[in-house]
Amino acid sequence: MLTLCSLNDIPEPGSKGFKFQDKSLFAVRARGEVFVYQNSCPHLGIELNWQEDQFLDYDDSLIQCATHGALFIIESGECIAGPCHGKTLIKVGSKIENGYVVLTEE
Ligand code: FES
């Protein structure tokens, strides 16, 4: 298992981007849980964010692609609006352990 960050590094609710072992990832913290995804839109393969650590919509309830406004469910990564409707972000297994976010898969 690999430590991604301290839980306190991610605002609640909020999101944070990471460059981790050549991969671009982001983590969303919401409702006491953390969800980690590859930072790659399922339809174009580009990064979702324009601004650093900004992966959520205006009220922090959904993940949003900054380029197209596509919206994804935080817990599942499923796109519910936008050009990749019905497709899903690639989740990276993770858990919270002793105040840290650790990856359970790479
Ligand atoms: S790159 Fe796919 S919705 Fe923006």
Question: Architecture in CATH?
Answer: 3-layer Sandwich
Number of alpha- plus pi-helical segments: 0
Strand order of the largest sheet: 2-3-4-8
- Outline, from the CA principal axes? globular
For this entry, give a set of tags:
Rieske_2Fe-2S; mainly beta; about 110 residues; 10 strands; Rieske Iron-sulfur Protein; binds FE2/S2 (inorganic) cluster; iron
Descriptive notes:
The strands form three sheets. The chain has a four-stranded antiparallel β-sheet with strand order 2-3-4-8, with no helix packed on it. A three-stranded antiparallel β-sheet has the order 1-10-9, with no helix packed on it. Strands 5-6-7 form a three-stranded antiparallel β-sheet, with no helix packed on it. With about 110 residues, it is mainly β. The chain has strands spanning about 1-5, 15-20, 25-30, 35-40, 60-65, 70-75, 80, 90, 95, 100-105. A hairpin with a 2-residue loop joins strand 3 (about 25-30) and strand 4 (about 35-40). The protein has one domain: Rieske Iron-sulfur Protein, CATH 2.102.10.10. FE2/S2 (inorganic) cluster binds near residues 43, 46 and 65.
